[in-house]
Write a structure and sequence with these properties.
The structure is a single chain. With about 270 residues, this protein is α+β, with helices and mostly antiparallel strands. The chain has two domains: about 10-195, Aminopeptidase; about 200-270, no CATH class. The chain is about 25% helix and about 25% strand. It has helices at about 25-30, 35, 50-60, 110-125, 140-145, 180-195, 215-220; strands at about 10, 15-20, 70-75, 80-85, 95-100, 130, 150-160, 170-180, 210, 230-235, 240, 245, 250-260, 265-270. The strands form three sheets. An eight-stranded mixed sheet has the order 1-2-3-4-5-6-8-7, with helices on both faces. Strands 9, 10, 13 and 14 form a four-stranded antiparallel sheet that branches. It has a two-stranded antiparallel sheet with strand order 11-12. A hairpin with a 3-residue loop joins strand 1 (about 10) and strand 2. Helix 1 crosses helix 3 (about 50-60). The radius of gyration is 24 Å and the shape is globular. The two termini are about 40 Å apart. Mean pLDDT is about 85; it is low at about 190-195 and about 215-230.
Length: about 270
């Protein structure tokens, strides 16, 4: 259970907090915007006033699962949009929701906050599945579900109640599920990788090193070529003038490069 001024969770660039009365304009900008709301069945936006939004926020619950949640950019304090955490139903299926202001689209904020929502649900509830239902025409949302490990398990059409059909349209949607077991496997894999990505200290002068990568010679002389990192290959060099370098059945890992900004020392690591 959260207090109204607490951060519920944070990611690398973002954090999520409960909505306050000061966020009325954010929700009005989101819910009245056809760009945001057309994919969920409101082609003209949601027919709601600021006063009605204010009342909704005032009457929200004290639990993070009963609150309107606001997404904030750490670096500037700007509010980017809203998200929602839903407790699992009797079948163990929880749901999430994300809406971002259009000016912040295209920065992978959606994927980042979706991962945070998944982690929060799997770590703080007993849900076994987190479900999402993107509009089949919402390519960005579909890519987001797949980027976080969602599996498409079905397709459906949602029809609004009769009294709402004058200002809504049916929503043709896909059904995506992220399974707890798959999420745990991904977390273990990403956890191993993230250890290699932690800040490293220069052994020569003790300055914190910068991360980066190396370009091969071809990319330096021909920047139009495909970008590529350098790779570490297991074993001794086996080169033939006829077949070239033989790397079949070898373990191959990408090289991570860290540079000390003070003394220039460069250290290379693999995952």
């Amino acid at each position: 259970m959260q207090k109204n001024n607490e951060i519920i969770f944070e990611t690398k660039r973002l954090y999520v907090r409960p909505a306050t009365i000061g966020d009325v304009d954010l929700f009005f900008a989101l819910w009245s915007n056809p760009q945001v709301m057309s994919n969920v069945g409101f082609p003209q936006g949601l027919q709601i006033t600021r006063k009605e939004i204010e009342k909704k926020i005032q009457n929200q619950g004290v639990s993070e699962f009963d609150q309107f949640l606001v997404i904030v950019l750490k670096s500037t304090g700007q509010v980017l949009g809203e998200c929602k955490l839903h407790l699992p139903n009797p079948k163990g299926i929880a749901r999430t929701d994300i809406k971002l202001l259009p000016k912040f689209w295209g920065n992978k904020f959606g994927v980042e906050i979706k991962r945070g929502l998944l982690s929060y649900l799997f770590m703080n509830t007993d849900c076994i599945i987190v479900e999402a239902t993107p509009n089949i025409g919402n390519i960005a949302s579909i890519k987001m579900q797949e980027a976080v490990g969602g599996q498409r398990i079905g397709e459906s059409v949602y029809h609004f109640p009769e009294e709402k059909r004058d200002y809504t349209k049916p929503v043709h949607l896909y059904i995506y599920h992220v399974f707890r077991e798959a999420w745990q496997g991904n977390m273990e894999t990403e956890g191993g990788r993230s250890n290699m990505s932690q800040p490293k200290q220069c052994v020569s002068c003790e300055t914190m090193m910068e991360d980066g990568f190396l370009l091969t010679g071809n990319e330096i002389t021909a920047l139009s070529a495909k970008m590529a990192t350098q790779w570490w290959v297991e074993g001794e060099v086996d080169f033939s003038r006829w077949s070239g370098l033989d790397i079949k059945n070898r373990e191959i890992k990408p090289v991570l490069a860290y540079r000390c900004p003070s003394c220039g020392r460069l250290d290379l690591f693999t995952e």
